[in-house]
Write the C-alpha cells for this entry.
Amino acid sequence: MIYRSIRQMHKMLGQLDTWLVKTAEYAQKKPFDVNTLLTFRLAPDQHSFVRQVQSSCDHAKMAAARLTGKEAPKHPDDEQTFEALHARIRAVRTWLDGFSAADFEGAEKRIVTYPPWEGKVMLGEDYLLERALPNFFFHVTHAYAILRNNGVDLGKKDYIGQLSLRAP
Amino acid sequence: MIYRSIRQMHKMLGQLDTWLVKTAEYAQKKPFDVNTLLTFRLAPDQHSFVRQVQSSCDHAKMAAARLTGKEAPKHPDDEQTFEALHARIRAVRTWLDGFSAADFEGAEKRIVTYPPWEGKVMLGEDYLLERALPNFFFHVTHAYAILRNNGVDLGKKDYIGQLSLRAP
C-alpha cells in the first residue's frame, strides 16, 4: 500500500499538470499573462503558487526517496514560467516511474531521518501517513485553491481524476 | 495501514478542531463575530467554510463506514455556529474511536459501492487511496486556507500536529 500511495501522488501530480493547462487556456481567453499567477498567494505569509507546485513535487519525490533509501534528484526551484512548472512536474513523475513495488519492500519499518527532528526518527509508515501524504495534499490543494480563487474553471473531477472503477 | 489511515483522519479532525479555537480567539481579539466566517468561500462556486468542515467530517466518517460495512451516523448539516462545528467534529471523532484494527480486516478487497458510479464498484484500497483520502485532505485544507486567507494565525505545525518521532 506504500507503493500505491506513491503512485497516487504520481497521479495527483498528473492532475495538477492538467490544471496548469486549463489555467493557460483561461489566461489566453481573458486575456492576461498566465505567469502573473506564479506569485499569487492566499495570505501574505503563505507560499506563492509557484512554491505550492514546487512543494507538491518535492513531497512526492522525497517520500519515494526516504521510503526506499534512494537519492532524489535535485531541483533548484528556479521556475519562472508555467512551461518550467510543466517540466518540473514531468521530471518528478518520470523519476517516480522508475520505482516498482519491490523497491518499497520493508518500507513500513524503514527508519526515516530528517534534520529538524534533532536526532529523532520516524518509521516509514508513520512518516508516510502523518507527514508525507498530509504535506503533499496540503500543497496540491493550495495550488488548486489559488487557481479557483483566481477564476479558473476547475472542479472536483479535475482534482480527483479517473477512479479505478470496476464491474461488480 | 487502512486502519492507520482512518486514525490519521481522526487526528486531522482534531487539528481542525484546534484551528476553530484559534479562530475564535482571533475573532474575539479583533473583535468580530466569528460566525461570519461560516459562509466565507474562496470562489463563488466553491463550498463555504461551514461546508468544508462538514465535508471533512463526512469523508472521514464515510471512509470508516464503507471500509468496514458499518452504518455511519447521520448528521443533518445544520451547523450555524463554531460551537456546533466543534460538536460535529467531536461526534465524528468519538464514533471513529469505536473502531479497532480488527474491524478493517480484509478492507483492502472490500467492495465499495456509491450511487453515482452507476453500478460499478471500487475495491477498498483503491477507494481509500484514490477517493477517500484525497477528498478528506481537499476539504480539510480548504478549511485551513479559508482561515489563513482571513488572517487567522495558523502555521504548518497546526496543520500537521504531533509526529510519532522516536529515538533512533
Notes: Chain B touches chain A through 46 residues (CB under 8 Å).
